[in-house]
Design a protein that fits this description.
The chain is an alpha/beta fold and 426 residues long. It is built from 13 helices and 18 strands.
């Protein structure tokens, strides 16, 4: 059963002709990734501003059990946040094959909500077919599609990263793609690219959160539309920047925030800490906030080894909620962002800048672009643990480098919605 819009749809406080649907491949309640958090922030900010806003995600039955007789579930009391269950999605082709279940319910939902703007944040789980469904069901609606990562140009989990070699992919090129998928042939990749380009042509606006990602897509996908850049920002609570509770002994406290996985770089950070410790540099500590969404034995082993080798130099705090970030930033001097893949617009960097914390980062991906724009950051000379240790040592040797201006002009939820509204309604 499709959740009913209810009386809220006709509320007089909502602006006529401005009904917005945000679509993401999950929901932050189950998968608090940057894409889902951005989509939900836009939805909730739009509601607060008087716009008629809706959020639709996608789930599988490993996250929550669906109700009988439907592939949709409401995730909020007002039913404005909901999700479809997906069972027959093919990742390589970005294809949603469940035409009589998933896509049928999507079509019925669109008919019921009748949004004037559909903002698609990801095609995972929904599939390229979702764009055709949206366009055929709502021929007059404006479709805005934000490209948050590399799934449209990289079939290997959209990361442009070779896990076996622990290398960032210089491509995508046919040669490199066939190395990751030796069972595929050139025609498979040619058709994948063609199908993606054709589906994207149905959107009215294409958006990238960074120039770095835009340049990748312009080079390797060359969509028919111009890709516009709308920078993300601080999407946290409307609170004052966190004050620093400094350690009495002058210890510099570095912070790591985020999911713990092979590509997020915690291994590199722990290796860098081992390098500092072996060099008899001891006046530092690392607070690790985050957990594994998907268990990796190698990561478990590395964390166990770090507890032994680093002792009090590292503390693991586990899973955190976005609402607690400000409190956790009170206890750190500097964020370390050691992500090893081409991460293009990490939200945690905006969080650190909002709270006036310095950021140590690798010199690849979108992090240098953000830090340069906001006149902040200490970049490692290279993307390896030795260079990361050297950058951290600079902070330890010169604590004044941690003094960044709190509350600097970082775009927030309201400004992000205003930027997108120009694409929605102009």
């Amino acid at each position: 059963m499709v959740p009913g819009p209810g009386a809220a749809m006709n509320a007089s406080s909502q602006k006529a002709g401005r009904r917005i649907l945000q679509i993401a491949h999950n929901h932050p309640r189950f998968h608090p990734g940057g894409t889902e958090l951005t989509a939900l922030a836009l939805h909730r900010t739009a509601l607060k501003s008087g716009l008629d806003s809706w959020y639709l995600g996608a789930l599988d039955d490993s996250q929550i059990v669906p109700n009988l007789g439907t592939q949709m579930i409401a995730l909020s009391d007002d039913q404005r946040e909901a999700a479809l269950f997906t069972h027959r999605f093919r990742r390589f082709a970005l294809a949603q094959e469940d035409h009589h279940g998933f896509l049928w319910e999507l079509r019925e939902y669109l008919k019921l909500v009748r949004p004037h703007v559909v903002h698609v944040h990801h095609l995972l789980n929904f599939g390229l077919e979702a764009l055709y469904t949206i366009r055929s069901t709502l021929p007059d609606a404006r479709i805005v599609l934000t490209i948050h990562d590399y799934y449209l140009i990289c079939a290997n989990d959209g990361q442009l990263y070779k896990h076996e070699l622990k290398q960032r992919c210089p491509g995508p090129t046919l040669t490199e793609c066939l190395k990751c998928f030796p069972e595929r042939n050139a025609n498979d990749f040619a058709m994948r690219r063609l199908n993606i380009r054709n589906a994207l042509s149905l959107s009215d606006r294409l958006v990238s959160p960074s120039h770095f990602l835009k340049e990748k897509f312009d080079r390797y996908l060359a969509p028919s539309q111009e890709i516009e850049v709308v920078e993300n920002g601080y999407l946290g609570a409307d609170i004052p920047p966190a004050r620093r509770r400094r350690a009495d002994d002058g210890t510099i406290v570095f912070g790591y925030f985020g999911n713990i996985s092979a590509v997020k770089g915690l291994q590199d950070l722990l290796d860098a800490a081992d390098i500092l410790s072996k060099a008899e540099i001891h006046n530092f500590r690392i607070n690790v906030h985050g957990s594994q969404l998907f268990k990796e034995q190698a990561m478990d082993d590395r964390i166990a080894a770090a507890r032994q080798s680093l002792a009090d130099h590292v503390r693991f705090f586990g899973l955190y909620s976005p609402e607690d970030l400000g409190r956790h930033f009170e206890d750190i001097d500097c964020l370390v962002f050691p992500s090893v893949w081409w991460e293009n617009a990490p939200l945690v960097i905006y969080e650190a800048l909002f709270h006036g914390r310095q950021v140590v980062a690798y010199p690849h991906g979108g992090a240098p672009e953000i830090l340069a724009r906001h006149d902040a950051g200490v970049l490692a000379a290279r993307s390896d643990p030795y260079a990361l240790a050297e950058a951290m040592q600079r902070i330890i040797a010169e604590p004044s480098l941690t003094l960044a201006a709190p509350g600097r002009q970082i775009r927030g939820n309201k400004e992000l919605l205003e930027a997108y509204s120009r694409l929605y309604f102009s």
